[in-house]
Write a structure and sequence with these properties.
Blueprint: H1 8-30, H2 48-68, E1 74-78, E2 81-86, H3 91-96, E3 100-101, H4 102-109, H5 118-124, H6 128-137, H7 143-158, E4 166-167, H8 170-186, H9 188-192, H10 195-215, H11 223-229, H12 231-257, H13 268-276, H14 283-311, H15 316-330, H16 334-339, H17 341-352, E5 358-364, E6 368-369, E7 375-376, E8 381-385, H18 405-413, H19 440-457, E9 458-462, E10 471-473, E11 476-478, E12 485-489
Helix pairs in contact: 5-14, 6-13, 7-8, 7-19, 8-14, 10-12, 10-14, 12-14, 14-17, 14-19
Bound molecules: protoporphyrin IX containing FE (HEM).
Length: 495
């Protein structure tokens, strides 16, 4: 039978769809690593059920996999592709293995190289931003006063001087505190106070991560096309251009100022420019790179710490006393922040009580043999079970928030191995090894300054009937974004 000419386009369209589906199913299954899958289900051709199970029950999938396979590697299917989970007994091996690479994994998972996502590209392809964080951003005394001024500004404006209890905008205010303090060192005081810059950097971070989720709802071969038409990706492309323009204007403004002032700027714009010398650099993308690395991570850690303090009101007084003593003795300096050891312990314990299910995510750059001789093929994504963070064999009463847990360990052992910025396989929130988070010292400074000012200036509490619940998103939990917190300005303050 001859097909009517008018049906030909439809025929070709159907063939194209069938080939795409075949290609998708084929590539998805071909990509499975040679380890048993714990979330494979009958007739789940598009993996909708596998993804749903991952999004809602990742931690159970990890513990089930470990139990079922007696600690041997197994696979969890995620929207980013299959991840091979290794037992925590292998964390030292992963940490030290040069064939297992963190930046390569991030480039795959976070679509580095896509237009508008250039922030991720500069963060995990070049080494300029990571080198800058390691050298200039860590433990730099000169940041403290400028960061403090910006924190004061945000608190005065958002929480105010009202001495009666009033509600705050939890997500917005906590983000704003971290974002203003960080920006004062990233782009300097002028741009940090610019509402357009603040809105652009925060919006970019949220839009970028949301766009990634939306793009991944499509079959992998269609991601580049989905990205082209995704409205949030389009906004990222626009914001990337705008960031570059704003940085260029800032550089021009500084140049015009030079005749009036001899004061050098002490921020990442200057440091990155100096390090690049004559080589061209994308300062706009680098600034958004710092934003995606620093803003959400640190403001989440701040929120989780404030939430735990709200739930354990008995620690407010000791924390305040510690801050007052440290500031009275050392002023607002690094020495004062180092003295805030109870606060350090509270921050670390807050991280422990909202842990990710896995850590040390890596990509195998080439075939690599595990200590028992089993091969992890090149290209495989791996992650290490993080359950030591809540194991009763490591921590007494692991389900309980113990504000002094790490302080007591520090005092008992006399070792800084239990400080907020220290990492170990029992506390892998900042990772370990070559790619251990280089921004953790900066995060510590940012968080301690925010918490110290909040404690000295405000009383704060959870609204009486509010019960907070964290949100699970696969391996990573998110602090309840709807927490209802009330504050009132304190009378007495030595600040
Ligand atoms: C409490 C806040 C933060 C948390 C929980 C956090 C967590 C992490 C984790 C888990 C890694 C991967 C480490 C590994 O797998 O071994 C990482 C890497 C990284 N972090 Fe952070 N981070 C935080 C704050 C920051 C800040 C403030 C910055 C920048 C100023 C930053 C910059 C980076 C960079 C550039 C990397 C990639 C390092 C590399 O690939 O070599 N982070 N972070």
């Amino acid at each position: 039978m001859v097909m009517a000419e008018s049906h030909l386009p439809l025929f070709f369209a159907l063939v194209a769809v069938a080939l795409s589906v075949f290609y998708y199913v084929f590539t998805q299954y071909r990509r499975l690593p040679p380890f048993p899958v714990v979330n494979a289900y009958r007739n789940d051709f598009n993996r909708a059920k596998a993804h749903h199970e991952y999004q809602t029950r990742a931690r159970e999938l990890v513990s089930t996999g470990l139990a079922q396979h007696h600690g041997r590697p197994f696979t969890i299917i995620t929207p980013n592709g299959p991840k091979v989970i290794l037992s925590s007994a292998l964390s030292d091996w992963v940490k030290n293995n040069k064939d297992l690479d963190h930046p390569a994994l991030v480039r795959d998972d976070f679509l580095a190289g896509y237009s508008g996502f250039n922030a991720q590209t500069v963060l995990h392809e070049g080494s300029q931003v990571v080198n800058l964080i390691k050298s200039k951003l860590s433990k730099n005394e000169t940041h403290i006063s400028v960061m403090n001024t910006h924190i004061t500004g945000v608190l005065d404006q958002s929480w105010g001087a009202d001495q009666s209890w009033h509600s705050i905008d939890w997500q917005k205010d906590t983000t704003s505190l971290i974002s203003h303090a960080a920006a004062s060192v990233f782009v300097g005081p002028h741009l940090a106070k610019n509402p357009e810059w603040q809105s652009l950097t925060n919006k970019y971070v949220m839009n970028y991560f949301t766009a990634l989720g939306q793009i991944r709802e499509w079959p992998a071969p269609l991601w580049p096309v989905a990205h082209l038409f995704n409205p949030l990706s389009r906004t990222c492309r626009h914001d990337m251009k705008r960031a570059r323009i704003m940085i260029t204007e800032e550089l021009r403004r500084r140049k015009s100022e030079e005749t009036h002032s001899t004061l050098p700027y002490n921020d990442t714009i200057e440091w990155l420019s100096a390090a690049a010398g004559e080589k061209p650099i994308d300062l706009g993308a680098m600034q958004l790179a710092l934003a995606i690395a620093a803003l959400f991570t640190t403001s989440e850690a701040l929120r989780q710490t404030i939430l735990e303090i709200c739930k354990h009101t008995d620690i407010v007084s000791p924390l305040r006393n510690e801050v007052e003593e440290a500031i009275a003795q050392h002023g607002w300096t690094t020495a004062a922040l180092i003295k805030m050891r109870l606060m350090d312990s509270v921050m670390k314990e807050a991280q422990r009580t909202l842990p990710a299910s896995v850590g040390l995510e890596r990509k195998a750059l080439r075939d690599t043999m595990m200590p028992d001789g089993v091969k992890i093929p090149a290209g495989t994504h791996i992650a290490v079970d993080a359950s030591l963070m809540w194991s009763p064999e490591v921590y007494a009463s692991p389900e309980t928030f113990d504000a002094r847990r790490y302080l007591d360990l520090r005092e008992k052992t006399g070792s800084p191995a239990h400080a907020f910025t220290a990492t170990s396989k029992e506390h892998i929130t900042f990772g370990q090894g070559r790619s251990v988070c280089p921004g953790r010292f900066f995060a510590e400074t940012d968080m301690k300054l925010c918490l110290a000012q909040i404690l000295l200036k405000y009383d704060f509490r959870l609204e009486e009937t509010y019960k907070s619940t964290s949100i699970v998103m696969g391996f990573y939990p998110v602090v309840d974004p709807f927490v209802k917190v009330e504050v009132r300005r304190r009378n007495a303050s030595r600040i």
